[in-house]
Amino acid sequence: MGKPLKILELFAGVGGFRIGLEHADKNTFQTCWSNQYEPARKSQDAFEVYNYHFPDSDNIGIDINDISDKKFKSMDADMIVGGFPCQDYSVARTTHGELGIQGKKGVLFWQIIRAAQNIRPKYMLFENVDRLLKAPSKQRGRDFSIMLSALNKLGYSLEWRVINAADYGGPQRRRRVYIFVFRNDLAYAKHLDKKYGEIKDPSEHDAYYSYVMKEGLFGKQFPVKNMPYKGRIASYVFPEDVVDTSDNFKGNVFNSGIMHHGRFFTVDTKALGNEKPIPLRDILQPESAVNANYYVTDQNKINKFKYLRGAKKIERTSSTGHTYVFSEGGMSPYDDLKLPGRTMLTSEGSVNRSTHFLKINGRYRLLTPIEAERMQAFPDNWTKIKLVNGEKTEVSNRMRMFFMGNALVTDVIKRIGLGIKTIHENYD
Question: What CATH fold (topology level) applies to the domain 5-275+410-427?
Fold first, then answer.
């Protein structure tokens, strides 16, 4: 058994990473520090929920930009985890900083890089929306390649996989990219060096292909069909300069891949499809437990949902006076209880096209906060209480839904955690 991994959880929200990793093995994964702060909000509800559940860690409720290098250096974290916003990661040259680059102000990924520079963790685990792999639209893949190039410059390798939770037994069709990062001087990385060290050109991809499809963390924990989807495979070698990557990257980034010593190999994968997802009906509370407030009885609201979910073509005029037709495909009038939920957004529960709209025994209703928590594999009522100045206070239902729209499926993190635990025990 390996030593416990001490963890720093950044952009912690209400603790999704921590829940998932502790469900994998509480003895292996020990979160010692966290940071959660919403600059645009006066009330720090997510931090207060986290603080209520996890008073034993050093929970830092300030803007990550204001955490000093000295504070980061004081953390002997073995692992950094977090889900950070998808932003513009482009960089420019500067004479300051170890990397010799300057990212745009306010882009939080560069704060992760700063934390990694100061802490030098063994591992990192990140989650983001899958569109990160194709951003920006004018130079697809550039943003993700900058991230990989920056981590390569710091002496890390990594693998990534877009995972739809419903493909692996989850209750929600939520696609997110997960990135597992490991330091190049670890025994695990040296094991890969022996296996792939002679590969100078990632287009000689037989070994990398085997790693991504079957032998890597994601290959083992989230099995895929042993054939590239539509034959999509690509490779790339990063230049030494991250700015060159930012300015000149041209390539494809598919939903799975590895970056190893600046050699980048990517392949489009498909889940095996042999794990049944949890359908919506299995996460619903008994109707006797559902407050009347969640039922939609106003005919105007029912008609509004029908309109929002229906197909439409609307003539619009842009700010420059250009006239165009906005079209939107139709959805079913209410959600199918035999299917897993759709991707939950922060607007869940409002009169919105993305909101889950249920019809049960002839009555229309919305999801309850407990059902939203179950869609993300959180414990029931996880978001109900927050700690404000030492006093327990109830969280509003609207904010609880917002939390879950921002959260991740903790069972996916649990499964990744089991893979990291195996690596840690076998190589560390």
Answer: Rossmann fold (3.40.50)
